[in-house]
């Protein structure tokens, strides 16, 4: 993924069928090749007339949204968010069978009481999102973790909040296989979470908090 204009849709970091049987191949094709592609195309179209913004990394378009010309703010929010969130979500998955690093377990226990309680709370938050959006595990610059949700393509990315994990709750993420059963999708998705990357993202914030800069060049971890 090029970090700035023109954004390109790079291949997934795994095969389309790599997440089977939890997340199906057809959904991954549509999700990556059509849904993400559309956000990328729209973002490039919006930025076509804004040479200064073309130099901004993707994260900055989200973090510094208030500095973007007013008439394209909503479009940037939706489409830069749509690109960022999808890359973040796709990266957050890996073919099943990967262990959660014990350091991450320790952090989750510290913040949520137990790993099970964390999973339960994330699932509950994800189920409670009405309509389309995401549920996230985030941390602040002190490393305190919390679960948040976002609507549409909003991203909880700011100078003080660092996303660690995201689940896409738009129906296109699960409808073909799981129909309207979001809870089943969430349970299956837990089987393919890239916990190693969650831990790497968490460690990364130490460096970023020192610099007090744009966080998580998520493709470069
Ligand atoms: Mn999606």
How is this fold's topology laid out?
Layout: H1 25-47, H2 58-63, H3 70-91, H4 102-112, H5 115-128, E1 133-140, E2 145-151, E3 161-168, H6 175-178, H7 182-190, H8 195-211
Antiparallel strand pairs: 1-2, 1-3
Bound molecules: manganese (II) ion.
Manganese (II) ion binds at residues 31, 35, 86, 168, 170, 172-173.
Low-confidence stretches: 217-221
The biggest sheet, with number of strands, parallel, antiparallel or mixed sense and barrel status, is:
3 strands, antiparallel
Rounded to the nearest angstrom, the radius of gyration is 17 Å
Question: How are helices and strands ordered from N to C?
Answer: HHHHHEEEHHH
Give the class from helix and strand content and strand pairing: mainly alpha
Strand content: 5-15%
Average residue pLDDT? 91
Q: What portion of residues is helical?
A: 40-55%
Give the termini distance in whole angstroms. Answer: 13 Å
**Which cofactor or ligand species appear?**
manganese (II) ion
How large is the count of helical segments?
A: 8
Number of strands: 3
Main sheet: which strands, in order across? 2-1-3
Mass-distribution shape: globular
Brief digest:
This protein is mainly alpha-helical. The protein has eight helices and three strands, in the order αααααβββααα. Helix content is 48%, strand content 10%.
């Amino acid at each position: 993924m090029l970090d700035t204009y023109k954004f390109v849709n790079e291949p997934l970091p795994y095969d389309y069928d790599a997440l089977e049987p939890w997340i199906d191949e057809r959904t991954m094709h549509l999700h990556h090749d059509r849904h993400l592609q559309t956000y990328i195309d729209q973002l490039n179209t919006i930025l076509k007339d804004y040479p200064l913004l073309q130099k901004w990394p993707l994260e900055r378009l989200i973090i510094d949204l208030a500095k973007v010309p007013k008439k394209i703010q909503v479009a940037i929010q939706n489409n830069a968010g749509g690109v960022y969130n999808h890359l973040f979500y796709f990266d957050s998955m890996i073919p099943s069978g990967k262990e959660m690093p014990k350091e991450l377990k320790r952090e989750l226990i510290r913040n949520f009481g137990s790993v099970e309680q964390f999973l339960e709370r994330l699932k509950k938050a994800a189920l409670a999102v009405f309509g389309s959006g995401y549920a996230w595990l985030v941390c602040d610059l002190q490393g305190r973790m919390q679960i948040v949700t976002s609507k549409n393509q909003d991203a909880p990315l700011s100078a003080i909040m660092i996303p660690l994990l995201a689940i896409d709750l738009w129906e296109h993420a699960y409808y073909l296989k799981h129909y309207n059963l979001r809870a089943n999708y969430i349970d299956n998705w837990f089987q393919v979470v890239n916990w190693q990357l969650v831990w790497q993202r968490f460690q990364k914030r130490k460096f970023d908090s020192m610099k007090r800069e744009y966080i998580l060049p998520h493709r470069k971890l």
